[in-house]
Amino acid sequence: MSLRSLQGVSIEVLVQEYEQAAVAYGQAVAAGDHRAANRAHERIAGAYRELRSRAAAAHLLPLLENEDEHVRSCVAAHALEFAPEHGEPVLQGFASRPGRLRTPAEYALKAWREGTLKFP
User: Are 37 and 25 in contact (CB under 8 A)?
Assistant: First the structure.
């Protein structure tokens, strides 16, 4: 979905786009496909920006229960901006165990605590 077309869609469709893009991002990272990962990241950021512009970012919070770790990780990082009490524990969970999401979770938490985390 193009970034322009996001402006005219429902919040439900934006949340679905975010979720699908986060899954695609995880798959691309696992495959070592940086181009696909960058495209998926742009989709995530575009959906998040549009949700935030509508004061609807909280609609992402149910995705913290998603079965896909990358979806949960992305939402948790963005939640630091609008609902840190929901995002921080999820990121702490990823940071406390081995795996591909450990380092990004650690860096997101560190930057957030230092006040340097930038949101799209």
Answer: yes
